[in-house]
Amino acid sequence: MHAIAPRARTRRLLITAATLAAAASLCALPTRAAADTWPSKPIKVVVNFPAGGAADQIARAITQPLQAALGQPVVVENRGGAGGNIGGEAVAKSPADGYTLLMSSGGMVSVNPHLYPKMPFDPAKDLVPVAAAARVLVFLEVRPSLPVNTIQEFLAYLKAHPGKLTFGTPGNGSSPHLAAEMLKAEANVFAVHVPYRGAAPAMQDLLGGQVDFMFDPGIGLPHVKAGKLRLLAVGSAKRSPLFPDVPTLDEAGLKGFDADTLFGFYAPAGTPADVVTRLNREINKALGTAAVQERIAALGGVPAPMSPSDFNSRAASDSARFGALIKARDIKSD
Asked: Which homologous superfamily does the CATH classification assign to the domain defined by 139-234?
């Protein structure tokens, strides 16, 4: 065999390297092109609770300015059930291309892993936080025919009638349920839990007198203003700007009571980072618009723009806090 001259060998190596580089660049083109052209079709937002609830209302308020900013339709689809797990699983197992998002209460990520021993997906691994939407407060409301007018009278009535009162919730492990369990533990009272498939049907039964009280995530506030429900206290660390004269449960003597949760948007794990960044930026902009702020305020909530990492940190903190309560109260899934 003839020896290859050094110059020819060098030329061949250069050609080979150039060929490999060109091939690599061609392989990268589809990913880069997809990121550059996103979004090029409608985006679906799965709300993992029924229509009419707080998550649904917040999602619909934000998707309107979001679709204007992205230049594509943003469609809301409700897939409730199993404490939010059904909708969460649907999104977790969707393609990670930025065209399927989840709007959820913080409970699915921070609470459900403590409730469901065999979840069909892992929220911490199979979803990525995109943007927080709102800090949602819970409001302790009672049917008007209940013979109490203040939070002190209500707590005294509960103690005098153990097991006689019922409370509705959107389901086991929901923030209203956990708020009620906090109340029962800290006030040393007992009432019967009636779980529903979402806040809206629970609210309907409170209005109809089928249950006695409820920690409302905000959808019942118009009924409070209309005199159809009586608001006694706020299950938050701070009073609500909407009802500055209504005390918190902490002020009523249940020290440290805080049942606030963060509602927000998630995407399937593996969604391109630049898509998540764009969505976070546009959702935070939407939270700054008057229409969205008014919609969230009408629910008694507070807009909560933040980065994905800050959103994730808050979820981890809530998981530790609510996980301890679930263990102490031996709360089980439905």
From this structure: Periplasmic binding protein-like II (3.40.190.10)
